[in-house]
Structures are given as C-alpha cells and as structure tokens.
Amino acid sequence: MAQRITALSDAALRSLKPTGERYEVIDKVMQGLVGRVSASGRVMFVLRARNAAGKMQTVTLGAYPDLTLKSARDAANRTKLEMKSGRDINGEKKLVRETTLMEQDKTTLRAVVLEYEQRFSASKSSWRARGPKTERSGARQVIERVYADLLDKPITKLSDEDFAASISNYRRLRPSDGRTTANGQASRARAYLSPVLDWVAGRKSFQKLGASRTQRLPVASLMTTHDPASDDPTITGKRTRVLTEAELKAVLPFLVYPAPELETLRLGRHLDFRPIAMRFMLLTAARLDEVCSMRWQDIDRTNSVWRKPAVKSTRGGPRGQALPLPEPVMALLRELPGWKAAKPDQLVFPNGAGTGPLDNWTRFQKALHIASGTTDWHRHDLRRTAATIMHSLKVPASTIEQILAHTDPLRGDNVGASASHYIQLGRVLKNARDPQEEALSTLAEALAYIETTDTREG
After folding, report:
1. pLDDT in tens, 209-232
2. Is 291 helix (H, G, I), strand (E, B) or coil?
3. Which residues contact 226 (CB under 8 A, 6 or more apart)?
C-alpha cells in the first residue's frame, strides 16, 4: 500500500483524491496517526501503536470529516495511553460485535412482522387493524396462521426450506365454502411475508438507506419458494364473479337503511350501516375501503361530487378522484342520519358503536346469503357487477375506467388536480352533463328496474 508522510491539515485532507487504489497519509504531528484513503476517496483515521505487551496494533478511530483532524489527534493520544495501561480496545469492539450478533439471533419472525405492520399500516390497507376489537391486520393474521410454527424462532436461523415446508404443511383449521385445499391462503401468506423479509434484509425496493429496517439482518428470501396457487386448478387467479339479474333482484331489497332484520345479527337496525353501504358500493362502483373511509366532508353537496382524498392507482402513485354523483345516490345520502347531524370529519357509514369504520363483514355476508337465497359472492363483487351492467348498457369503456379510477383523464394533458373543480363549473355553464354522472344515473335506473319489476315469465 502506498504511503505519504505529511503534516496533515484540513485543507490537505480535503484535497486528497481517489486513485482507484487504497493508500495512506501519515501525520507528522501525531506519531502513529494515519489517514487511510479508500479507492473511492473515503478517508478513515486509524492509529498504529504498541500495546502494553509491546505488540503493534491498528485501531480504527473514525471517518473524516465526521471526526475532525483535531479530534482524531486527541483520540489518538488518548488511545495510546489506554493501550499502554493494558486496555484491549480491539477486543472490546469485537465483543460488542459478537453481542450485537447474539441480539440479532434473538429477533424472531413474529417481532419483525410486528415491526413491519407498525411501519406500513398507514400506507398499506392490508396491514391496518381489521377493526376496533383487534390490533391485528389481515396480513399479519394470515402470516401467523400459515407460518405459526416459525413465529417464535430467530429469523436469521430460518431458511427458505423452512418457509417452504410451512406452506406445504399448512391445512385449514375449519374448511369453508367447499374448498378442499388451503393453497389460496398459503399463497396470500407468502405474498404478504415476502416484502417483510426484503425490508428486513434491505433487498429489492428497500435497498436504499432509510427504506429498509434500521438494523438489517441476513434473512432468507421467498423468491426460491413455490407459490401453491400457481398449480392449483381450483384457484383461477383474477376473480370474475358478477351477480346475475336474479341474484340482484333477491339481494337489493335487503340493502336498505334502517337495516333489515336478519337472523344471527344482533346489531340494532338503526346502528347497522352495512346494508346501505353495500347499496352505495353498487351504485357508485366504489371499492370497499373507499366507502368505509368516506367522511361527510368528502361530499360536495353543492355540485353533487364525491371528492375521494385517495384512490388505489394501478398506474403511478396515489391520487384523489372527483366522482360526480347522480340524484339517486345523493337521495340515498340525504336519508342517512348523518346528513344533517354529523360533523364534517365523521364517517358516512360508521360501525355499530359509531366510533370507527364498518366491521364484521363476514358475519353480515353469511346472514345476507341465507336471507336472499344467494351464495358464492362477496361485497367486492358488487364493484365488478356495477361495471358489467354499465358496459352492457353501452357506457363507453373510457367512462367506466374513469369511474373505477383506473385512469386519470387529466394526467395525459398535464392538468393540475384542482382542475376538477373548474371542470365541474364549466359543465354547469355549458349546460353539459358529466359522462360519469350520466353513466351512474343509467346504472341506478337499471338497478331500480331490476328491483321493482317482475321479470319472471308468465
């Protein structure tokens, strides 16, 4: 390694240039102080001095400019005295490293899943608490079921074979809906856990400093494990379920407020907003989380527009949406008790306690299936059903895409998000009807026809 002997100064240190190879500059003022310059130009202060036994040792002091030249000289002088007194500085550093590694070994899979949930619950809906009675998110619940035997084991000791074995051995505790395998849930658990492990290790999208866990750990990757859903013929991937006209006719009478009396449900009729929220989802083709998080302040009553603060985007980052609402939807909102009594920041469709978003959907869905005589559909299928009805009524695909918030019609024209306010005003002045409002009005008419008309053959 090349060496230079010089009287170091801050100016001299700043002028040091990378050469592609490591070299050293030796300070003439403080004997034994060395500035070690890496191939990339990073300067690290080290001390070369003899210990109490006369053995030459090299002790790292710190990096420049975090450690100034004056501080480096002071540290070198102090370290020399400590070495002469018999202190084993390098041995102490090694012990700290080994202790840290031992602490890392104690970090369990359960612990990092909890860390990830706390870190990302605000930005990822699948990692938010499922309801007021539990702190567990849906993602954590699935992971804890499938990987139950690994949860309390040190995460650095778990191999990809361990994770693969958990997936292969997982069986449903209570088989439901006629499913004969647990591959779907095991696949979901794998999909939820994979980014957790990447975050812990600082891989993929978490490579940059600050994006990953503060203390990275060498953990396995699930990329080498098999996805059980990929070769399960009972799992077809993208769901395509759409309610038929007969099913809609059976279900719609129950989607009202006050809620209908359904067996097994104990919640009071005036406290249960799940049925009317389902009707609202069907009338607006909205996502469940959008409806559950909807607040009265999001409704522009003057222009009949639902201003969603954020929508899930299939392209680009998160963005808002201004959805024009037809009169049937506004009439539905006006019939709710919160239209006149609620504060702006209160939920439009609160839970039974009135303190949070709607919950216990599975229980309500089962009761609704029994009451309506329908089966094999859930609340998420209402959005797809609404889009299918609009498509069958010749609503342009581009308008349906706007309603579903799959595309931002203003993005291509580089128009600001606040333009939706002025576009609404322009349509009023031009006496032009909004295509989205017209499409949703047509949808409302179709649903009203299905609900009130006897379509059975005489």
Report:
1. 889 998 888 899 998 888 887 665
2. helix
3. 164, 167, 168
